[in-house]
Amino acid sequence: MKFFPYQRNSAGDSFPIIDIFVSRANHIARIFALIDSGATVSVFKEEVAKQLGIDIEKGKIIHLGGVGGHIKGYLHELKIEVADKQFLFPVVFSREYLVSFNLLGREAVFKQFRIIFEEKKNRLKLE
What separation, in Å, do the N-terminal and C-terminal C-alpha atoms of the chain show? Predict the structure, then answer.
């Protein structure tokens, strides 16, 4: 079991953002991502692909839709390390994704843990 305190933005709002390690081939990156129970798939910004030496266009083209509209992205598989677990998971990289944080969606990631959002304590628990 591991606890992650919520992170605050400049306006003082709190979000369940955790630090994780992602890797592909011989590249590894420490990034921050929002645990998003409303997202089916994980979506990362283009900068993460650059850190990992990934040419995003070599992935499978995918179109995602949600509250914010539709974006085009490219599906890849990465290795993730979080809360002392390592596993492979699908991630979509998109140049059209302009939100300020990476998203960890339900596919693959949520199956690995019991995830508890403790809003009163402003923390996230992964079991």
Answer: 4
Could you list the residue range(s) of the whole structural domain that residue 105 is in? 2-126
DSSP letter string, 51-75: HTT--GGGSEEEEEEETTEEEEEEE
Indicate the number of domains in the chain.
1
pLDDT digits (tens, 9 = 90+) for 20-72: 999 999 999 999 999 999 889 999 999 999 999 999 999 999 998 766 678 89
**Dihedral in degrees, nearest 10, Cα atoms 101, 43, 118, 18:** -60
For 113, other C-beta atoms within 10 Å of its C-beta total: 17
Q: Which residues pair with 23 in a beta bridge?
A: 28, 79
